[in-house]
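Session log. Operator J.P. requested a structure for one protein chain; no other inputs attached. Running the standard single-chain path with token output.
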Amino acid sequence: VQLVESGGGLVQPGGSLRLSCAGSGLTISGYLVSWYRQAPGKERELVAYITSPTTSTYYADSVKGRFTISRDNAKNTVYLQMNSLKTEDTAIYYCRAQAGTNYWGQGTQVTVSS
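Structure written below.
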């Protein structure tokens, strides 16, 4: 059982990236899935989550209006669309799946820099 993140990279300020969190060995539609991030020297912080099965969403104030979390159950994947990226969005991004048990992905690096 694992979560595999992808989609990170280097982007200029104002740019966009879409992160993916794919479930392997678990049916991701049955889990509350969250995205967290951790910048160098800072604590890991919650960015967004999407519930199951109702697909309600939550966003941290720092990303509200710029990031969108969504799920594609057919692809067993949760996405984080990140627009209008800022330098302060630079961090390692992790996805987490919760439903009693708790799974974390390995993280994907996002660097926003000119």
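Operator note: The longest strand covers residues 91-99.
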